[in-house]
Design goal:
Layout: H1 3-6, H2 11-22, E1 36-42, E2 47-54, E3 65-70, H3 73-87, E4 96-100, H4 106-110, E5 117-118, E6 121-122, H5 130-148, E7 151-160, H6 162-173, E8 180-184, H7 190-205, E9 212-218, H8 242-256, E10 263-269, H9 278-289, H10 298-302, H11 308-326, H12 335-347, H13 351-364, H14 369-381, H15 385-398, H16 402-416
Parallel strand pairs: 3-4, 3-7, 7-8, 8-9, 9-10
Antiparallel strand pairs: 1-2, 2-4, 5-6
């Protein structure tokens, strides 16, 4: 085993994710189907509401996953899923995605106060019922999802335009409903920026510790005047710039009250318009909201000179960090990575490191047969057939496969000598 080979180890986690992406039905080898349709009857809305469920690539019904709720799900679920297919595992956790349909009654449900005029003209479309839609999500949809799908209470809310307005409304009025908020080009100019006054009070008085918000603004600041830019738009007083000015004003309020604990990032996309900004915002927003999830000390894992004691500390640090953020125990690394690190350590003759990696795999994946089988490899390499038999028996108890049965037989033959 040379040093070049050990450098492959950390890359295995990303290769594992890529392999999940490539697992497609033979009949649909080049097609991607996103989202299974489900629905719920809402007593609050007095109607059925459709939603789409996308399970993660590593889906296991015995495992629980964080969950992301995506407004305008029929439009944006595929985009969120595409980002997850490339970034989950190393940058974001595997999640169950819930795309909420807003094809009907969108303005009614996502706008935050009632208006009867817009741009000086009568406005007759039903609107201003965000409080009802918020109640539906909190008291009906989330409990339904949690009863039917293996999700945790670590939730992310994603919305664009009016959906972004609703994201901000939820953060201000029911902040504990979600942990992460992603407001894409939110229509914060609604009703003469009425939500801004609510925001000033909420962000000045409430604690947002443990909450995260990513907010974005598109580059088309004025529909007719190209001389309006990010440096002078706040000096313009025309109705044409009310959208970006409201967005910037909100971001300034949030920044002014930074001591409330909210993790916040605001991104301006000068080369995007309202219709194109969702894709980069979803990518950047998920990466920001899960910045703490990204792996650290990869260079140390890549180096064969890193001591067992250092690696032990790194693994425990990451496990504790993830538990702190998620609120429950989360394996710090995939079982496949522990396994690869252990076997590469064995190939390099470092049995102490190998044993440590295999023991961590058993600790965090106690119901998987493979970590116990890897311990069999370790004990056989150490000529300790008694312990090898013990772990082979445990692997067989978990998975009564002929492979493990044969392995037990082989070990017994070695013990007989």
């Amino acid at each position: 085993m040379n040093k070049i080979q050990i450098l492959i180890v950390i890359g295995l986690i990303f290769l594992f994710q890529q392999s999940l992406m490539s697992q497609t039905n033979n009949d649909n080898q080049f097609l991607q189907k996103v989202g299974t349709i489900d629905s719920i009857y809402s007593k609050t809305l007095k109607e059925y509401r459709k939603f789409y469920v996308q399970l993660p690539g590593d889906y296991n019904s015995k495992k629980k996953y964080p969950v992301a709720y995506i407004l305008d799900g029929e439009v944006f679920l595929p985009t969120v899923n595409d980002v997850q297919r490339y970034y989950s595992g190393g940058f974001t956790p595997e999640m169950i995605l819930i795309g909420i349909s807003n094809a009907s009654n969108r303005t009614r449900d996502l706008t935050t106060s009632k208006i009867d005029k817009k741009y000086g003209m009568p406005y007759t479309e039903e609107n201003g019922k965000a409080h009802n839609f918020n109640k539906f999500i909190g008291s009906e949809l989330i409990p339904f999802i949690e009863s039917k799908y293996p999700v945790t209470q670590f939730r992310t809310l994603i919305g664009h335009s009016y959906g972004g307005l609703f994201v901000m409304y939820t953060l201000i009025n029911t902040p504990d409903l979600f942990t992460n908020y992603l407001a894409i080009d939110p229509s914060l100019d609604w009703d003469n920026q009425k939500l801004l006054s609510d925001a000033q009070q909420a962000f000045s008085k409430s604690s947002y510790k443990g909450k995260s918000l990513f907010m974005s603004l598109n580059g088309q600041l004025h529909p007719q005047n190209p001389d309006i830019n990010i440096d002078n738009v706040m000096q313009d007083t025309s109705e044409s710039t009310s959208f970006p000015r409201a967005n910037i004003a909100f971001s300034n309020v949030i920044k002014h009250h930074s001591k409330n604990g909210l993790a916040f990032k605001w991104n301006f996309y000068p080369n995007d318009i309202h219709g194109t900004i969702p894709f980069p915002s979803i990518m950047d927003g998920l990466i920001f909201n899960f910045k703490w999830y990204q792996m650290e000390n990869t260079d140390k894992f890549n180096s064969p000179d890193t001591t067992k004691e250092e690696l032990f500390k790194f693994i425990n640090y990451r496990a504790k960090k993830l538990e702190t953020h998620f609120g429950y125990v989360v394996p710090p690394y995939p079982e496949d990575l522990f396994d690869a690190l252990g076997h590469m350590s064995m190939d390099m003759g470092d049995l102490n490191k190998a044993q440590m990696f295999f023991e961590f795999a058993i600790k965090f994946y106690p119901n998987n047969a493979n970590p116990y089988n890897s311990m069999v490899d370790f004990y056989e390499a150490s000529n300790d057939y008694t312990n090898a038999l013990k772990f082979a028996t445990k692997a067989f108890e978990i998975n009564p496969d002929d492979y493990y049965k044969q392995r037990i037989s082989n070990i017994k033959e070695k013990i007989k000598g």
